[in-house]
């Protein structure tokens, strides 16, 4: 860093490993990602020019290669990048010659690499939608740096020049450390004493030095994506180390296990330290992929080993480099413990059931489906198969393929509005008066465009649908005619007002006319209250549950609001009460709600990326909504001027929306009263039902509950007596036909669930028995057939149901249990006689 600082580069603080400023990427995979797309598109100036940064990056596309290549591949690595942003028709910083010279000086003078070993190989680079020529810098087969000269934007197969010519370099800090320290592997250079600590804890034997010497000699030739190349790698190590191939393979497999735990535990600590919550989607899914791959490795070594011990050591080892590891320590450990417990329960329950599925179709698609739907790693199923002497293999490159498929959001195609809005060409942008003064209820405006039932004005007080906030309603008056506004939407710089009438025939006459705008203030104010409450609640959730909490969705309507956040479990009632109390304290404090526009770089430097809870605006200047000391976000919505205007916040429902996402539903202001009124009505109705007054309801319910428990105990006693009597009847009244005990009876007891379970229990105990129950219900006469295992082999229940179709009995079931219903009266003796004949025929 200081090498480039001395050469005029400003040192930039690293950003999170979660790309919070990107909507098309989950993780920070390179230092250039920090500047895409806002800076690289020319929309926003760079934070410094030139600059240098050492950025922690996570790439999971090569996760299966971790350990195999001795450290060439890591899921988490430090990328040193110096960058210069040259304007094509403006300020020029430096380009290819200076970049290559810097690199040559750095490696030869700073690192001490002999010049004759340094090779600059011309290549081509593409990434993040950009492209350009590059130099791959190699030393003896190892590539410690890549120098990219970004000049183009990729549009399909076409390359379009971008406004800037960008120097984009990537220096592999771990590879440089490996080279300079001359350790057996990069892991020894990165983790130092942790290598032996982890090896001892895992109980893995250390390979001989001769193995490492031979492996280092050939690792530069290894193509880990080729099974043939891996096989040749093992042969070459064997040839030059003197160990047989089986021994080499054992050394390699042990080291891969060790290096997987080293690599994955650090990666996971960094991911969780940046607030990722493991889940089944997005960056949470990628964190769970890393975690479960590590747990899979531990499980195969020794399922009794606790993964949190390794995480603890990583936090302690790296906390000086990454302060968030210390800040998020408790959260990281709690999540790992929670996920580990869940994973082992899952493995115990699922693997035996899934084995047959894999054995019948052992291909990548089967393993992929099981992994994505059940969360079970393929190695554990293969391990279970080996115990049963069944030979199946894990698909090659399995996790890398999963990671490649899941590394980016699947962005849906944006609604195509270009053709539809051609009528707005050359129309000036709409002035947004609701941002100037959200309390404006009426205003004058001028009609600039009209089509079908749509109006575009020079300015508007109507808030358009966006940011989870519903649009305003109201009216527009033109020449004495009043049009109701039923919806409002924003497309680029234009706000479109949708009317309840088609004005196509008057369009030409309306353009240029003045009009009077009036919003439905009750709708607007409720939306303002609910939107401000969302900011209050989010700030409280981050305070109470932890700074890992991140908005995953929100909706604000006049009736109520909802906020979806990332968290690993549903809070208990006491915590929910605390959250609600803390939110209402913020309301009572009457804190100002400050709105302002700021340059993007300035806002990020002051507030960080917590700004982008609700999304990332693609603009040079962003609108900030701040409740000082509590919450700050980039937000487009309308808000009250201070928290006191919210009136109050009542959480009405908390539920797990999906794995890792918790939904909070709440109401504010007058809607709290409405909610209380509904609850009061329900209480009054319940009080009437239990014949008491509302204030006495709790005592009444407690008493009823006691009586209910007594009734349940009494009912269980009666059931036991009935069961005993029923079994006695079976012994005395059942008829044995061809070795099968047959009993047909009419049931007068209205307890179908109990009776069905009793019959199933009896037929499990007495294998050679058929019990037929006839009972009345609303539809007519029903017949239930229950059978033991032996009897169902001679005459199964579905055959009996089929024979009863002559009585108009319709139904079905399984071999051992079936049921049908008929509108006709069915006699017990007739059924007994019919089944007896069927059994005699089976002989």
UniProtKB/TrEMBL annotation:
It is an enzyme of class 6 (ligase). Its main location: cytoplasm. GO terms for cellular component: cytoplasm. Keywords: Aminoacyl-tRNA synthetase, ATP-binding, Cytoplasm, Ligase, Metal-binding, Nucleotide-binding, Protein biosynthesis, RNA-binding, tRNA-binding, Zinc. It is found in: Cytoplasm. It catalyses: tRNA(Ala) + L-alanine + ATP = L-alanyl-tRNA(Ala) + AMP + diphosphate. Gene3D superfamilies: 2.40.30.130, 3.10.310.40, 3.30.54.20, Bira Bifunctional Protein, Domain 2, Threonyl-trna Synthetase, Chain A, domain 2. Binds 1 zinc ion per subunit. The keyword Ligase applies. Its cofactor is Zn(2+). Its EC number is 6.1.1.7. NCBIfam families: A-tRNA_syn_arch (TIGR03683), alaS (TIGR00344). This is Alanine--tRNA ligase. The lineage of its organism: Archaea, Thermoproteota, Thermoprotei, Fervidicoccales, Fervidicoccaceae. The gene is alaS.
């Amino acid at each position: 860093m200081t090498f480039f600082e001395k050469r005029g580069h400003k040192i930039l603080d690293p950003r999170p490993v979660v790309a919070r400023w990107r909507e098309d990427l989950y993780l920070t995979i390179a230092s250039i990602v920090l500047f895409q797309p806002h800076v690289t598109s020319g929309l926003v100036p760079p934070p410094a020019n030139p600059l240098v940064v050492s950025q922690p990056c996570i790439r999971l596309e090569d996760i299966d290669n971790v350990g195999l290549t001795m450290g060439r591949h890591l899921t988490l690595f430090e990328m040193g990048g110096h960058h210069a942003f040259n304007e094509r028709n403006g300020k020029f910083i430096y380009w290819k010659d200076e970049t290559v010279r810097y690199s040559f000086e750095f490696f030869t003078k700073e690192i001490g690499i002999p010049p004759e070993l340094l090779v600059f190989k011309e290549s081509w680079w593409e990434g993040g939608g950009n492209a350009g020529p590059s130099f791959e810098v190699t030393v003896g087969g190892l590539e410690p740096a890549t120098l990219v000269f970004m000049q183009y934007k990729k549009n399909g197969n076409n390359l379009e020049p971008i406004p800037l010519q960008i120097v984009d370099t990537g220096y592999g800090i771990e590879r440089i450390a490996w080279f300079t320290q001359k350790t057996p592997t990069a892991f020894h250079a990165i983790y130092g004493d942790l290598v032996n600590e982890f090896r001892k804890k895992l109980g893995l034997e250390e390979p001989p030095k001769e193995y490492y010497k031979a492996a280092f000699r050939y690792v530069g030739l290894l193509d880990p994506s080729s099974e043939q190349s891996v096989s040749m790698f093992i042969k070459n190590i064997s040839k030059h180390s003197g160990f047989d191939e089986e021994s080499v393979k054992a050394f390699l497999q042990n080291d891969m296990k060790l290096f997987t735990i080293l690599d994955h535990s650090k990666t996971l600590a960094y991911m969780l330290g940046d607030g990722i919550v493991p889940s089944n989607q997005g960056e949470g899914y990628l964190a769970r992929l890393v975690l479960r791959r590590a747990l899979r490795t531990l499980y195969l070594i020794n399922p009794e080993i606790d993964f949190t011990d390794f995480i603890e050591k990583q936090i302690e080892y790296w906390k000086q480099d990454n302060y968030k590891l210390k800040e998020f320590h408790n959260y990281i450990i709690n999540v790992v413990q929670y996920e580990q417990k869940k994973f082992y329960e899952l493995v115990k329950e699922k693997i035996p059931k899934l084995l047959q599925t894999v054995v019948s179709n052992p291909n990548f698609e089967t393993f992929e489906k099981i992994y994505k739907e059940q969360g079970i790693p393929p190695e554990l199923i293969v391990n279970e198969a080996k115990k049963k002497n069944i030979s199946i293999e894990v698909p090659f490159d399995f996790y890398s393929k999963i990671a490649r498929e899941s590394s980016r959001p699947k962005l849906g195609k944006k609604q195509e509005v270009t053709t539809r809005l051609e009528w707005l060409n050359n129309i000036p942008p709409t002035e947004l008066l609701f941002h100037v003064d959200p309390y404006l209820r009426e205003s004058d405006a001028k009609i600039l465009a009209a089509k079908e039932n749509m109006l575009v004005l020079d300015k508007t007080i109507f808030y358009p649908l966006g940011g989870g906030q519903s649009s305003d309603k109201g009216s527009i008056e033109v020449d004495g005619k009043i049009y109701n506004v039923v919806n409002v939407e924003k497309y680029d710089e234009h706000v479109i007002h949708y009317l309840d009438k088609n004005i196509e025939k008057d369009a030409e006459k309306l353009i240029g006319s003045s009009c009077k705008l009036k919003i439905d203030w009750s709708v607007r104010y409720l939306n303002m209250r609910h939107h401000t409450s969302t900011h209050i609640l989010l700030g409280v959730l981050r305070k109470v549950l932890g700074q890992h909490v991140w908005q995953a969705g929100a909706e604000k309507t006049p009736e109520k609001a909802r906020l979806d956040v990332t968290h690993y479990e549903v809070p208990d009632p006491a915590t929910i009460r605390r959250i609600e109390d803390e939110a209402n304290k913020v309301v009572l404090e009457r804190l100002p709600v400050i709105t302002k526009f700021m340059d993007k770089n300035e806002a990020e430097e002051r507030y960080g990326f917590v700004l982008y809870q609700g999304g990332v605006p693609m603009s040079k200047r962003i609108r900030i909504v701040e409740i000082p000391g509590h919450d700050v976000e980039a937000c487009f919505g309308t808000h009250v001027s201070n928290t006191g205007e919210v009136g109050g916040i009542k959480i009405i429902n908390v539920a797990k929306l999906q794995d890792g996402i918790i939904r909070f539903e709440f109401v504010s202001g007058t809607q709290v009263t409405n909610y209380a009124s509904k609850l009061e009505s329900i209480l009054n109705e319940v009080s009437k039902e239990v014949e008491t007054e509302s204030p006495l309801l709790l005592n009444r319910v407690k008493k009823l509950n006691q009586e209910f428990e007594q009734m349940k105990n009494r009912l269980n006693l009666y059931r036991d007596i009935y069961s005993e009597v029923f079994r006695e009847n079976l012994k005395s009244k059942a008829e044995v036909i061809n070795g099968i005990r047959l009993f047909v009876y009419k049931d007068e007891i209205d307890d179908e669930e109990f009776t069905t379970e009793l019959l199933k229990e009896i037929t499990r105990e007495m294998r050679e028995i058929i019990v037929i129950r006839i009972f009345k219900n609303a539809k007519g006469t029903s017949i239930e057939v229950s059978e033991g295992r032996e009897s169902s082999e001679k005459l199964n229940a579905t055959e009996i149901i089929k024979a009863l179709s002559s009585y108009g009995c319709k139904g079905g079931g399984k071999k051992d249990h079936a049921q049908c219903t008929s509108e006709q009266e069915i006699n017990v003796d007739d059924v007994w006689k019919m089944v007896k004949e069927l059994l005699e025929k089976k002989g």
